[in-house]
Amino acid sequence: MTTPVTNDWNERIALAEQMIPLIGKLHRDNNVVTSVYGRLLVNCTDIDVIKSHRYARRITDQELPLAKTLPILQELVKMELGTASIDLGQLAARFDEEGGDLRAFLDRELAAVIGTASETKRTDVVLYGFGRIGRLLARILIEHQSVDTGCRLRAVVVRKNSDDDIVKRASLLRRDSVHGAFRGTISVDRENDTIWANGTPIQVIYSSDPATVDYTAYGIDNAIVVDNTGRWRDRAGLEQHLKSKGVAKVLLTAPGKGDLKNIVYGINHGVIEDSDQILSAASCTTNAITPVLKAVNDRWGVEFGHVETVHSFTNDQNLIDNFHKGQRRGRAATLNMVITETGAAKAVSKALPEFEGKLTGNAIRVPTPDVSMAVLNLTLEKEVTRDEVNAYLREVSLNSVLRQQIDYIHSPEVVSTDFVGTTRAGIVDGLATIAQGKHLVLYVWYDNEFGYSNQVIRIVEEIAGARPTVIPQRKELDEL
């Protein structure tokens, strides 16, 4: 496979157009998600395919020819594959090194998922609440759905606010001022309180009491309920969901209090046990900084540090000055920078116990609707250089088990809106890194809505036993 990169745009378009139906068939029929060096190919256009291959130049110093990945896709659709996440870029690079027969190579590389299609069962998912996070979770779940396996969005539970409530809910799912239009079609069946999204029927259930909903009446059973209202954050409050018929597990999209396990996927999801009925997905900030802190601590050790988050305003603030039970949050969110508290620094230790007592934190809310930044000011056990840290974190973002959590950027032009829609929990800005002796400052961007929502879905899939097998296998941090 020594095909040179073509400069003929029309030829690239033609190759991409051949790839799109193959990518779609793998997703629909086999629940296989493909990517190119971590750039997902889901509901993609021909331009998306070309851009993902061009992205490869950041890893291999040259663009990946589409003519190298097309033959791989053509073979994959012939194979009896089960649920998997397959990186076409890495497979192409490995085959370049080995050579030989392509099908024999793929048989070896994908042995773990050949013939496993029947092993993933369907799990019903219910979204309790349909606000900013709830609607993004719905979008992701709908986009992930393929064959009748894995996690299936079955219902959303909300309080009825008007006679045309369901129409307004559907409209908010269809259009989003930050994240753009829904990718697909949405219609409403008012008679049956159902929103149809890309062929998926979503039952809208009206209730203000999590303990009294009979989900089995809607054909829903053993469901995972994702509570994104933030109203209840301790075991006693969230246990109300388990009193409803048809509920097996509850996941909170906020920091859990008391003895609840706070899960940051990629860091401590291994502590989830089958007996756990209530879990927390921690906060967006905790998800953004914990993977980076683990990577740094594993390599150089962290003695102590301070986390300052520059966070976009949220719904709990006032648009204009008015009474608010919280300090300073009553002042106009769109006009002011607002100093407020954050529990993210302390919450890190719930996922990484070795950070207990090592971090302090504070937050500044700023007049942007989405995308935030965490500044990690760390004192290390060993001396480091800026280039050393950046090279390591870049490698972590490309080849490690934390690839879905950590991304890396090295550009003098990026600003916050460039990170709207990222699926990673946090993105290290390499140009902003400061290192002097044992003192290290890292700047980590994060989409506090969409990036966090993807982390939540990973936990849902983990609970359901529906996480895809990753091919090729990624490296542990100590193997880098």
Automatic annotation (TrEMBL):
Residues 123-284 form the Glyceraldehyde 3-phosphate dehydrogenase NAD(P) binding domain. CDD domains: GAPDH_I_C, GAPDH_I_N. Keywords: Oxidoreductase. One of its GO terms (biological process) is glucose metabolic process. It comes from the Bacteria. InterPro entries: GlycerAld/Erythrose_P_DH (IPR020831), GlycerAld_3-P_DH_AS (IPR020830), GlycerAld_3-P_DH_cat (IPR020829), GlycerAld_3-P_DH_NAD(P)-bd (IPR020828), Glyceraldehyde-3-P_DH_1 (IPR006424), NAD(P)-bd_dom_sf (IPR036291). Its EC number is 1.2.1.-. The keyword Protein biosynthesis does not apply. It holds the Pfam family Gp_dh_C. Transmembrane segments: none annotated. PROSITE patterns: GAPDH. GO terms for molecular function: glyceraldehyde-3-phosphate dehydrogenase (NAD+) (phosphorylating) activity; NAD binding; NADP binding. Belongs to the glyceraldehyde-3-phosphate dehydrogenase family. This is Glyceraldehyde-3-phosphate dehydrogenase. It comes from Corynebacterium canis.
